[in-house]
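Entry 14. Two folds queued back to back today. First construct below, sequence then structure tokens.
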Amino acid sequence: MSEVLIQNETFVNLLNEVGIPSYTPSANAQALLQVEAKYIKDLKINVSNVLNNSQNLNRKEALLLALSVAVNERFDLLKQSFTELATAAGATEAEIAEVIACTSLMNTNNVFYRFRHFMHKDFYNNQPAGIKMSIMMSPVLGKEFFELLSLVVSSINGCEMCVTSHEQSVLQHNSSESRVFEAVKLGAVIKGLITILS
């Protein structure tokens, strides 16, 4: 399999782009590499575009959002590489830690608020959530980016209530729909990448 990996220059470039040159192909990656699938080129272009060619996200922001997806999907290989790349782009240890904490909090909230949304019962909706969320009050990442990060993770986890709430909050913090669009697209592309690499 390593010969196929070396022969597929596009895939090697993709791995270098995300900082994992010593990757051992998963079954999904092997299936694509064995037939020189055209999708590898699409994936490389999509990943490169969201990490490097955003009009509304800087490099550090793009990498921190990518990190949140890797944390959310429990894919340690990309978690490590995106941590290193984000650090090289200027992210602090406190910012990295907050991305991890925010992703954990959104996993909590996404399950809880999806349940409320699905049930449509006054009893559940009227009970205090009782979930401690002090991290949201004065985030190291800044309120707008913390909300954007929350929106991306909530989009991946499919919580309509959280997506709607965080999108409104992002816009209230002087952001733009274009920035929201690019951030969610980045989350979608990195999730797709993880589908192949894991």
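Second construct, same run, same settings:
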Amino acid sequence: MDAEKISLEEKKVKPVVDHLNDLLANYHIHYQKLRGCHWNVKGKSFFTLHVKFEELYTEALTTIDELAERILTLGKPPYSTFNDYITTSTIKEIQTIGLKDTDMVKALIEDMAALIEMERQILDITADAGDDGTNDMVNRFMQFKEKNTWMLRSFVNED
């Protein structure tokens, strides 16, 4: 790794990179779930959810790119195969074809809760490593999901 080139200690950065790769894998599964929800949503909430799901998958795609680039900045290659994503991710794929709109939202709420939990762990690890750059980035990701989780819970009347 090249962490020393940005004033970080290699041994302290390794767990950061490992957790970022895990987060990256989970984001890929979450991203594809968002795409499936966007493509397959039906019913009275179509116009509302179709737009919201597009907003969420667009943000997830940006997050995926930022995660991969941060992993590279820290000197390690990011996961880049579907096999890596599927075998590493704790978030699981679901079939969105025929899924009720509120069940889609509930599945995304669960994903976001899992991602937030992972991000909170990364914040602790990055603090220990003195990696403020990663900490700031992950904190921003988490804040976006916290707000959107509240919105989605309100949509399904679970706030």
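Quick look at the second one. The chain has one domain: 7-156. The two ends are 43 Å apart (CA to CA).
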